[in-house]
Specification:
mainly beta; Methylamine Dehydrogenase, Chain H; 4-stranded antiparallel sheet; 1 helix; 37 strands; globular; disordered C terminus
Length: 432
């Protein structure tokens, strides 16, 4: 029997539990059919001084981008993107672009890498299949990934800097940048290999006049949530159209306690539970800015977090949830990494990268097996085990040339897996 794609007719990307057991803890179904799977391709943006349109990728041995099932490996695979990644220069991938990314699938199961860039209205939402990412483009780099933007459907997807994917309805949702603008831009169309083929619709500003970015995330099925700091919103609808229906968006908290840079969600005990939210951001006085909620965002509590020896708490810029290990992972300035194994209530610091205090970690992502951290000054790390040890990933290369320089930055490492996405932070954060 091949790898399972559905459980009781429901995509395994959407199913969260089986008989009240979390899907992430189930290794096989009868017949040794894999349920928990790891990504076999990763992709990231790499900035090198003024040449900052590098798309970097890494694949497992034997990866076939044209095989619809090749994006995942069984649980007994030991693939990890720990060797150097391949870099391709992509037009339209430069400053301000492709800093918020997600992996989704179209109606026939083809995987697409989707990203937004708020400073280019021509190529606002860029998208590519794995084969396009790997193929790259030859000099003089005049081509780009397919895109939707200035010439796209009405209304056009402009002034958006976040992106999420809803697997249940195959819907792409963009969240606004830091402007007084419509909060969301939604398309139920599949990405195409030609430009401006997707139709879009908008949801007005969730809080009238507010300029904060909209950190949008699909939770599970048709559950959606968003933070426009410091406000928290839930979508209470049950239809495929609900995410695009303004009346289904409800503000459940007017001030969760901090200025939020990113947040993550975990439904740890099956569909019947309320799940957990964790938000991270600016320092809360002399402490880390970490808050959690156990009641769908209605109430938020400040977490307890311990800094590394001889270190003080720092601003945190990203957080994700590892379902197989049942851990939240947060990263931020001065190479700080924190993890929580009790639903975000208590946090401890990881010391293995403490010597790299000149690095700011902007992003952390996991496929529940490998966890990749990205940031400034060649910050590129991976943990393949207990999360207590992170090792450096070599700087990426073109087919034959090392492209490193000083002050290089990695952004938004993304695994080839459809999963509940976190509301990513603004990557344009300057820290002194």
């Amino acid at each position: 029997m091949g790898k399972a794609s559905k459980i009781n007719g429901v995509s395994i990307h959407v199913a969260r539990s089986i008989n009240n057991t979390r899907k992430s803890l189930i290794a096989t179904l009868p017949g040794d059919t894999a349920v928990t799977r790891r990504a076999t391709m990763w992709q990231a943006k790499f900035e090198v001084g003024s040449t900052n349109r590098w798309s970097c990728w890494h694949t497992a041995s034997g990866f076939d981008p044209d095989n619809l099932t090749s994006s995942y490996a069984d649980t007994n695979s030991d693939y990890a993107p720990s060797t150097y990644w391949i870099a391709n220069s992509v037009n339209g991938y430069d400053a301000g672009g492709m800093q918020s990314q997600v992996y989704g699938e179209d109606g026939i199961g083809v995987g697409w890498w989707g990203a937004v860039r708020s400073n280019d209205n021509l190529r606002q939402f860029m998208h590519a299949t794995s084969s396009t990412v790997i193929e790259g483009e030859d000099s003089p780099f005049t081509n780009s990934w397919p895109y939707d933007g200035q010439g796209g459907g009405t209304p056009r997807p402009q002034n958006f800097a976040k992106v999420a994917f809803g697997a249940f309805d195959k819907v792409w949702v963009l969240g606004k940048e830091n402007v007084n603008n419509d909060s969301l831009c939604i398309s139920y169309n599949d990405p195409q290999h030609t430009n401006n083929q997707m139709n879009w619709e908008r949801v007005g500003n969730l809080q009238s006049g507010q300029t904060e970015p909209c950190l949008i995330s699909n939770l599970v099925g048709r559950k959606w949530a968003a933070i426009q700091s410091p406000r928290f919103f839930l979508n209470t609808g049950s239809l495929s159209s609900s995410v695009a229906n303004a009346s289904d968006w409800k503000q459940v908290n007017t001030n969760i306690g901090l200025t939020v840079n990113a947040w993550a969600w975990a439904q740890r005990d099956g569909e019947s539970s309320n799940g957990r939210f964790v938000a991270v951001g600016e320092k809360d006085g002399s402490d880390y800015g970490i808050y959690y909620s156990t009641d769908l965002g209605v109430n938020w509590t400040k977490a307890t977090a311990v800094a590394r020896p001889s270190e003080s708490p720092q601003i945190l810029l990203d957080v994700t949830y590892d379902a197989r290990r049942d851990r939240f992972i947060a990263v931020g300035a001065r190479a700080h990494i924190l993890t929580s194994s009790d639903g975000g209530e208590n946090w401890g610091s990881i010391e293995t990268v403490q010597a790299h205090g000149n690095q700011t970690f902007h992003g952390v992502e996991t496929d529940n097996f490998n966890t990749v951290i990205t940031g400034d000054n060649l910050a590129f790390y991976i943990s393949t085990g207990s999360l207590s040890i992170f090792n450096s990933i070599p700087a990426p290369k073109t087919s034959s040339v090392d492209i490193t320089a000083t002050a290089d930055s990695f952004r938004s490492a993304t695994p080839s897996m459809v999963r509940d996405q976190v509301g990513k932070s603004s990557e344009d954060v300057n820290i002194t």
